[in-house]
What we know:
The protein has helices spanning 3-23, 34-37, 60-65, 67-79, 83-86, 91-101, 116-120, 148-158, 184-196, 215-221, 248-262, and strands at 28-32, 105-110, 127-129, 132-139, 145-147, 171-175, 199-203, 225-229, 242-244. The strands form two sheets. It has a six-stranded parallel beta sheet, sandwiched between helices. A three-stranded antiparallel beta sheet has the order 5-4-6. Helix 1 (3-23) packs across helix 11 and helix 9 (184-196) runs parallel beside helix 10 (215-221). It is an alpha/beta fold.
Amino acid sequence: MNQETAEQKTVDQEIRDLSEMIRSSARIVVFTGAGISTESGIPDFRGPDGIWKKMTPIDFNDFVRSEEIRRESWTRKFSGGASMAEADPNSGHIAINELVQAGKISHVITQNVDGLHKKSGVPDDKIIELHGNANYATCLDCHQRYELSDIQQTFLADGTIPYCDSCQGIVKTATVSFGQPMPVAEMKRAEEATFSCDMFIVIGSSLVVYPAAGFPGMAKQNGAKLVILNNEPTDLDSIADLVIHRQIGVTLSAANANLHVLH
Length: 263
């Protein structure tokens, strides 16, 4: 058997193993990180060419205390192009939605702020956005929602920084920034979903950002099967039941296709 054939056999076995684990599970939680969205053209934050290698992130406390820093934050937001807002779900997002629609996945916990799981068709009540959503803004005090297109038009016209129409509170993109507390409700939902699942699939996360990265270990300790699908190794590979270091979209699509064969 030549090397190419041997590698293909390994790939096929990994796909079969993943499909069989999905088939035999009834309540799967998927946990996604930046790796799934890079296949939609969205750059990650922490990789070798990540966004934070090119600019220092703005701390939440600095954003709140300084109007100048808020102006810098909105300048960055509206000068970085529209790649995230215009991005489309890729085959990985679509494969996840197929499993949601089939009743296999109970929740999608995501560290991503791009909204692509919603775009792919996953219902809102199945999505837990741990780090918020970059496609709209909210008031930090009363939580009223604001559309970015309205803020952008005013900001680019005369540099006006947005304040809440209702309570005059500070308006910020609906993402969790460095130094900002994690959203209590979403963390509680994620914990409940993790403890009630029988299979936990990590997809495209380096598992270095806590407390979010603690959920896979919690699931494993609670008796769930743990699968890690990521291009690079993670610190939790050693405790996983299945580790696949391959492209996400093609792998999930192949696993779904094989799942239909198993049925």
